[in-house]
Specification:
heterodimer, A: mainly alpha, ABC transporter involved in vitamin B12 uptake, BtuC, about 70% helix, globular, B: Rossmann fold, 23 strands, transmembrane transporter activity (chain A), ABC_transp_permease (chain A), membrane (chain A), transmembrane (chain A)
């Protein structure tokens, strides 16, 4: 019983950064922008988030630092890929390389420092309930926020006019432009949201997951978040399922090693990507009609004036 | 004529057509670098008027209407709306003032529903529910049936245009711009559209109607403004002109008539298709079902049909871009070729001209000589022991240039630098110079100016006269009537039995294009599916 609870808690903890980062990328991709720089924005968010928390002693301010850092990184991407219409794939990859370097520079002075990690909710009576108590009522703020975030994004995309316009930009930017919508401005905002989420997801790692900063601590989570968006076929509901599934796989990998199961850990690390490939194959085979990916995803748009 | 229209009009408030113009442009100019897309254009549009805007591709029609709709800012000149000078910040401002537009290439979102598409074209002040209710009401009022819940990719081209029109009408525009609305419609669908347009006119609205179908303009429009090379040539009453005189004004000279050789003799079957069926590759593709025909040397077979009914899929199956399961389904020069690659089919004597000039017919950033090599290398002497014979590729370009009057700035420019008409002449010329036994050509004169179109049609006729079998896919019924010996119609991936050109009236073809000639049993089957 204790073990099950521990595993669920560990899965939630491992899934939360994936969910937050993937939610941001989902919004960016739904507007038609493929930002492969998630890993870079996350790692800078991690460094800046830790720096903020260490300097002020506040986890909340640390998280804000992460958000601002991720947003600034995404603005670099927006300037290149949207403002100057540079190839999005190349720009995104460059952003990741930049981010890894930059985070090492920012975080160099903080390696080896420790902070008090984010506090967890305690509701007397509820948090003590066996099995589900700590899972439901004993998490830190990031976990609750991530769930509120994806619900809000779902509501935004499917229940508001602004969300409809954003999806329209991702489906056909030429049509959206012809109807008078500011495609580039909408996409810039979507990319900034993606950057803010990635920054927060990165900041989660040193603020709540492990209370210290080490270079490269995102360890490929940005790439998993990207795979997750594809895995979810760009739908918020499936994104939640996928995030916890992928999180579970990473935890399983640790426990499997501990239990001495004879599966190489490299294979387990590759599982999320393998799952994504399989989902892509299934999606294209099913082909029920409407395309699943935003039709304008990754294409350059230059309005003619 | 106009007085007659007014008497019929119940909403007339006694104003006459001499009333002040609804929209006026004065010296409207749009410059792109050194290029003048619009040069000092003055145009006046009055209420209760269907005003045609005529001109060849590149004459500046689209630029002019984009400026009027606020999509681009004019470089100079003024736009006056109801007597007052306006500067439009964008389409939404144009819509608020009462200017609506229906685009040629629809501004629709394939993966959104009809209602969502309409909502995106409105200002969003009413709730989605109210908007949906109004959508149903407007579509009923004007006889433009639509199901608001369906996603656009499921709809036919005619239905998609209905969305555009209903979306424009829901803003109650005083002035509606239609950019080549009938280009994608069957003749019957076009007639339906004309009824709607006459009704809009009777309600007191003005319409700017872009087209290059002259008979249609003569029938529908009260006034016509003709553009050529970015300048206004003339404003006239199209009913007092002939199609030939309008064409002269558009082209700025006589259009050469295409002459078919009388007494062309058909020989052996050169291209035979036997019960060809193919599943679609793309998400929104069409399934080819049991297509069979036989094409003899010396014969031109036309394939008519609204775009997206399987013409692209058929082209891919014939050219070898897609292979058939059974080799015997495509027979070229008596040899089963369904399993052969494009190059192998070329070696059998077939040649192919796809619809899309840039990206399919040519590699846009490569020179003409390189493009000549890319399709010619398999069957002509441009490669020696694996090395390119540059002189031979240039000779091919020169021959195509001379024979087909390709106009270009340099001897060997990049494909993308040529105008549509000249590039098409080059592509068709490149294939014809190889003396093919079978030529499969898709939309040979789409978006090509009248002069180049005549050259290309003549070349196809001459090729058939020389004994080749020619298969032409086109949406332009006039073109098929001009050159084809027999015409078949493609609908939902099925090909009708070919009609001889003499018995293929517009009405018959139109019915087939709308899918109405299916056997009763098949109709029941289609309805149940």
């Amino acid at each position: 019983m204790e073990l099950v609870e521990a595993i669920i808690l560990a899965v939630l903890a491992a899934s939360t950064p994936l969910l937050i980062a993937a939610t941001g990328e989902l919004v960016a991709e739904r507007s038609g922008v493929l930002n492969l720089g998630v890993e870079g924005m996350m790692i800078v968010g991690a460094a800046c988030g830790f720096a903020g928390a260490w300097l002020t002693g506040s986890i909340f301010i640390g998280a804000l630092f992460g958000i601002v850092a991720g947003t600034l990184m995404s603005l670099v991407f927006a300037l290149m890929a949207l403002g100057l219409a540079v190839n999005q794939v190349a720009t995104g990859l460059a952003l990741t390389i930049l981010g890894v370097g930059l985070s090492g520079l920012i975080g160099a002075g903080f390696v080896g420092e420790r902070i008090t990690p984010a506090v967890q909710l305690v509701i007397p009576g509820l948090t003590n309930v066996p099995l589900i108590g700590r899972v439901l009522f004993g998490e830190n703020g990031f976990v609750y926020f991530s769930i509120a975030l994806i619900v809000a994004v779902w509501w935004f995309l499917y229940r508001t006019r602004a969300g409809l316009i954003l999806r329209a930009c991702g489906d056909n930017h030429a049509s959206a432009h012809a109807l008078g919508y500011p495609v580039l401005r909408i996409r810039t905002l979507a990319v900034m949201f993606g950057g803010a989420c990635a920054g927060l997801a990165g900041a989660y790692l040193p603020l709540a997951y492990t209370p210290f900063f080490i270079p490269g601590m995102t360890a490929g989570r940005g790439w998993i978040a990207l795979a997750l968006v594809v895995f979810s076929s760009w739908r918020p509901g499936r994104l939640v399922v996928g995030a916890y599934l992928f999180g579970a796989v990473t935890i399983l990998q640790l426990h499997a090693q501990g239990w001495g199961v004879g599966i190489p850990s490299q294979f387990m690390s590759a599982l999320p990507y393998l799952a994504t490939v399989i989902v892509l194959v299934l999606l294209s085979r099913a082909r029920t009609g409407g395309s699943t990916a935003p039709a304008a995803l990754g294409t350059v748009f230059v309005p003619d004036r | 004529m106009q007085a007659h229209q007014r008497m019929l009009d119940p909403t007339s408030n006694g104003q006459h057509s001499g009333e002040s113009p609804l929209l006026r442009t004065i010296g409207l100019t749009k410059r792109y670098g050194d290029f003048l897309a619009n040069d000092c254009i003055d145009i006046e549009i009055r209420p209760r008027e269907i005003h045609a805007l005529l001109g060849e591709n590149g004459a500046g029609k689209s630029t002019l209407v984009k400026a009027i709709y606020g999509l681009i800012q004019p470089s100079a000149g003024e736009i006056h709306w109801q007597g007052e000078r306006i500067v439009l910040s964008g389409p939404s401002e144009a819509r608020i003032r009462g200017i609506g537009m229906v685009f040629q290439h629809f501004s629709l979102f394939d993966n959104l529903t009809v209602a969502e598409n309409v909502a995106l074209g409105l200002d969003g002040k009413e709730s989605f529910k109210d908007m949906s209710a109004r959508l149903e009401q407007v579509s009923k009022t004007y006889g433009l049936p639509l199901d608001p819940r369906r996603e656009v990719w499921q709809l036919s081209v005619g239905e998609r245009q209905r969305i555009e029109i209903v979306r424009a009408l829901m803003q109650d525009p005083k002035f509606l711009i239609l950019d080549e609305p009938t280009a994608v419609l069957t003749p019957q669908e076009a007639d339906q559209l004309f009824i709607v347009l006459d009704r809009l006119k009777a309600e007191g609205r003005a319409i700017l109607y872009i087209s290059h179908k002259l008979e249609e303009v003569k029938r529908l429009c009260d006034t016509a403004t003709i553009l050529r090379g970015g300048r206004k040539v003339e404003t006239c009453n199209p009913r007092l002109e002939t199609a030939a005189s309008l064409a002269r004004m558009m082209v700025g000279g006589e259009v050469k008539e295409v002459k078919g050789a009388s007494g062309r003799r058909t020989t052996v079957p050169r291209l035979v298709v036997n019960d060809l069926s193919l599943a679609p590759v793309e998400a929104h593709g069409v399934r080819l079902e049991h297509i069979s025909f036989e094409l003899k040397g010396g014969e031109i077979l036309g394939i008519a049909g609204v775009a997206g009914n399987g013409q692209d899929e058929l082209f891919a199956a014939l050219s070898g871009e897609r292979l058939a399961k059974n080799p015997g389904t495509v027979v070229i020069e008596g040899i089963a070729a369904g399993h052969l690659s494009i190059t192998q089919r070329r070696k059998l004597g077939a040649a192919f001209v796809p619809e899309e000039r840039l990206g399919h017919g040519t590699a846009p950033r490569m020179r003409l000589s390189e493009n000549a090599l890319l399709t010619g290398h398999a069957a002509s002497g441009m490669v020696r022991r694996g090395f390119i014979d540059t002189a031979a590729t240039l000779r091919t370009v020169d021959r195509a240039t001379e024979t087909f009057d390709v106009r270009k700035a340099k001897r060997d420019p990049e494909a993308a630098s040529l105008s549509g008409g000249n590039l098409q002449k080059f592509i068709v010329g490149r294939e014809i110079l190889r003396n093919p036994a079978v030529l499969v050509v898709s939309q040979p004169t789409w978006g090509v100016d009248a002069g180049a179109a005549a050259v290309i049609r003549q070349a196809l006729l001459d090729l058939a006269t020389a004994g080749a079998a020619v298969l032409v896919t086109s949406q332009d019924l006039d073109e098929l009537a001009e050159i084809a010996d027999r015409i078949a119609v493609m609908f939902h991936g099925k090909l009708s039995a070919p009609l001889s050109a003499r018995e293929a009236s517009r009405e018959k073809l139109g019915l087939l294009m709308g899918g109405s000639s299916l056997q009763p049993k098949e109709i029941a089957h289609a309805a149940g599916a």
